[in-house]
Amino acid sequence: MDDAAPPTALRLDGLAKHFGRTRAIDGVDLAIARGSFVALVGASGSGKSTLLKTINRLVAPDAGTILFEGEDVTAIAAPALRRRIGYVFQSIGLFPHMTVAENIGIGPRLARRPIGPERVAELLELVELEPAHARRMPHALSGGQRQRVGVARALAGEPQVLLMDEPFGALDPVTRDALGRKVRELHDRLGLTTLMVTHDMAEALLLADRVLVMAAGRIVADETPRALLAGAGGDEAQALVAVPRDQADAIAELEG
Ligand SMILES: Nc1ncnc2c1ncn2[C@@H]1O[C@H](COP(=O)(O)OP(=O)(O)OP(=O)(O)O)[C@@H](O)[C@H]1O
Fold first, then answer.
1. How far is Cα 111 from Cα 130, in angstroms, rounded to an integer?
2. Which of 7, 59, 114, 217 is paired with 85 by a 20 to 30 Å CA distance?
């Protein structure tokens, strides 16, 4: 083994999950180095969300193992696991009847390590929200603010790993861009290991250190953004890279 390589935060071996006849995950082997920011892209229905959910045990796989810092996730109590692995949901997923502060504190509370108002204020500051937002209900926030609360909630238990399922999907492009940069900055500052599902190859190329492409339950490409832009990864990956590249070319042409 290479002594200089960073330790593995997550290791998936022979992972499979079927829903009836659908092979949502069809034999995935994957090692994610501590500290890396990995994007998971691929067509709708290719298994990205299911893969993410198996990691923090929201979905139980039919076969295979998942090691988190060398420990089988099934051996870790779910609340403790979910405190150590923050999760930002696709549809934000805030509890509508709870204040922002209660939403942010739910994970630590379930893990019997409740957080106080100072920590809530600190988390709000981390995602650039006002301290007064702590008392608001989710419906009284904009979509971008709600998603920031979702990120704060995922960070509340001081996780080592951050899983994000299409976290910026519902946001306007300007907010999306700002929040993407913010998350990357927090990833670097807090020393996180991040696995982010996105439909947007441009976002994956700009934010991640490594891009995985999923198709029909399998990982069909695993490349750095630079390698993808240089043509690596095969047809599936290159079809996805072509989208932002063609758009950039078309805009450049309009600018004449
Ligand atoms: N609870 C479930 N019951 C039955 N089928 C499911 C369930 N969850 C996922 N599937 C199926 O498994 C496959 C993979 O779904 P998954 O949500 O993981 O894909 P995805 O790549 O995340 O899609 P999207 O980008 O649209 O979110 C799909 O065919 C989906 O319909």
1. 26
2. 217
CA of 2 to the centre of ligand 1 (A): 37
Q: How many CB atoms lie within 10 A of CB 128?
A: 12
Q: Which of 18, 26, 50, 214 to mutate to test the pocket of ligand 1 (most atoms within 8 A of CB)?
A: 50
pLDDT tens track for 162-198: 999 988 877 788 888 888 998 999 999 999 999 999 9
First to last CA, the chain: 52
Instruction: Report which ligand 1 atom has the smallest distance to the Cα of 90.
Output: 27
Whole-number CA gyration radius for the chain = 19
Domains of the chain: 33-60+78-255 (3.40.50.300)
- pTM of this structure: 0.92
Ligand 1, atom nearest to 51 Cα: 18
How far apart, in whole angstroms, are the C-alpha atoms of residue 38 and residue 32?
Answer: 8
Strand stretches in 34-62, DSSP E? 37-42
